[in-house]
Amino acid sequence: MDDIRETIDRLLPDLIALRHDLHAHPELGFEEHHTAEQVAEWLSRHGIDVRTGVAKTGVVGTLRGEQGNGDCVAFRADMDALPIEEQNDLPYRSRHAGKMHACGHDGHTAMLLGAAAVLAQYRHRLRGTVRFFFQPSEESVSGAKAMLEEGVLDEMRPQWMVALHGRPGMPLGSVGIRAGAIMASADTFDIWLMGRGGHAALPHLSDDPVLAGAHLVQALHGIVGRETSPGNPMVLSVTQFHAGNAYNVLPQQVHLAGTVRCLKEEMRVKASERIREMAEATARLWHVQSRFEWHSGTPVTVNAPSVAELIAQVAEEAFGREQLVWLEEPLMGAEDFAYFAQAVPAAMFFLGLGDVADLHTACFDFPDAALPFGVEMFVRLAVEQLAV
Asked: I want to staple 283 with a disulfide (CB 3.0 to 4.6 A). Which of 60, 235, 290, 369 is the partner?
């Protein structure tokens, strides 16, 4: 299969056109109807069995090798966009106001579709099955769980599962990988502080929840600085503080909200307990009432060592040792691929995008030059497991 790159090169113009179409038509979580139609049409055109309507807008493709029964391997790409107004001046810029592919899911989807098309041309050399999962609603960290609840892995359990994510700042086409935790958990919280409001000129006659809330923000950030080990990272960010709507009125209520990122399950439990305790203690200190809600989100994304080693081996063979990056630290961002990784041996790797704008910004655009690298990684991983 030495002609893999030639096959990818022939496919590349169609793949770029497809990504541009996806970029121009971004859709939020569980609204990916146009994207799902494009995915299903592409897979069908290349002779791959297609199932649509999985977890509302998800698509599953199944490619059976012609060398008989064997292992099953699986890949996942996310399809949804973000609620951001695009600022790029591109012929294929977003046509949907307030929505854009600011996280590169258009690129992820295009690369996996490219790999599906290439592998379809090699089906006569494959023993076993390749499954392609096109997942909705990654940004709300709910799509993977929804697909699993519909039993997508139970139909045909893969030996392993792989996903990638584009990463600005890493050299173009490089592969970043590590065994163990590669991305953090992500939980959120809400806190309400309630008390007597009053006239701003007479603060001694009120309880001033704003002052209580200001003290609570400072106290919460002390959890990371004084109650967690530097070797066991946790990120706590208060991202919302809502109070009042007049210059001369002390409000009756303050609402705080934020997020917590951890790399170990026990830290998630500790964070929830300590935030609740601090909210209650601050409320008592300032004579107000408190209400606390914790919302469990995605767990830690943990790479199975055997799958991480396979990715590293394939990347080094394909692109050279200089393009393989063993990551010393995980990212504190979160990924709902974590749910797949809890169900089967799995790993996620980062694909270098070079010097481009950061993810989740209004100027990000997945570079077309990165597409062939991602396609080749998916193809070679499947070939390594299934080719005869």
From this structure: 290
Given a contact cutoff of 8 angstroms between Cβ atoms, the answer to whether 86 and 95 are in contact is no
pTM reported for the whole predicted model: 0.94
Choices 3.30.420.40, 3.20.20.10, 3.40.630.10, 1.10.150.390: CATH for 4-183+300-386? 3.40.630.10
Which pair of tokens denotes residue 128? 């076993």
Instruction: Residue 129: name the closest of 84, 45, 73, 91 by CA.
Output: 73
Q: What is the CATH number of domain 186-298?
A: 3.30.70.360
SS3 227: helix
Is residue 228 very low, low, confident or very high in pLDDT (cuts 50, 70, 90)?
confident
Domain boundaries defined on the chain: 4-183+300-386, 186-298
Q: What tens digit of pLDDT does each residue of 256-285 get?
A: 999 999 999 899 999 999 999 999 999 999
- The 3-state DSSP class for residue 363 equals coil
